[in-house]
Specification:
- A hairpin with a 3-residue loop joins strand 4 (61-72) and strand 5.
- By secondary structure, the chain is of the alpha+beta class.
- Strands 1, 2, 3, 4, 5, 6, 7 and 8 form an eight-stranded antiparallel beta sheet that branches.
- The mean pLDDT is 92.
- Helix 1 (14-22) crosses helix 2 (24-30) and helix 1 packs across helix 4 (130-152).
- The protein is built from four helices and eight strands; from the N terminus they run βααβββββαββα.
């Protein structure tokens, strides 16, 4: 995949945008564009493990095993993939898991004049396929629009 970058300006302070992205109830609303039923298990504390999950077509949980690499509250958060969840089981050793290992999702929040510019940087050195790249290009702009809408609601 290499590196993908997205950004959006949101008419809300960075604290509100941060909470919209990470609080479970609003997280589930904006990540629904990637996969209906998306959620997470864990917390956003630096160094902690977190599972990003959604039911697959058979109803079993699938997703990513990750860890919070960095957390500078209201400024920046970095999430590192360490494996996958398949059929409800964590996997950090298969070929599929290894191709995701080391991938990063970095979110940076910059506030100016009461607005927040949210930057999303996705990087991967693994063999992430073209289908995933195309899915990211279609869904990330929708996800950012949803974060904007949720953050700007009073």
């Amino acid at each position: 995949m290499g590196k993908l970058q997205y950004s959006i300006v949101i008419n809300a302070p960075k604290e509100k945008v941060w909470k919209t992205m990470l609080n479970k109830d609003t997280y589930e609303k904006w990540t629904d564009v990637f996969m209906p039923g998306s959620s997470y298990v864990g917390d956003w504390t630096e160094g902690s493990k977190i599972l990003f999950l959604a039911p697959d077509e058979t109803g079993k949980l699938s997703g990513m095993v990750s860890r919070i690499k960095e957390n500078h509250q209201y400024e920046h958060i970095s999430i590192e993939s360490i494996g996958v969840v398949s059929n409800g089981e964590e996997d950090t050793s298969s070929q599929e898991a290894k191709k995701w290992a080391g991938s990063l999702e970095n979110y940076t929040f910059k506030e100016f004049d009461g607005k927040t510019e949210l930057h999303v940087d996705l990087t991967s050195d693994g063999d992430v396929d073209r289908q995933m790249l195309e899915m990211s290009e279609k869904t990330w702009p929708k996800a950012l629009t949803r974060i904007k809408k949720l953050s700007e609601e009073s």
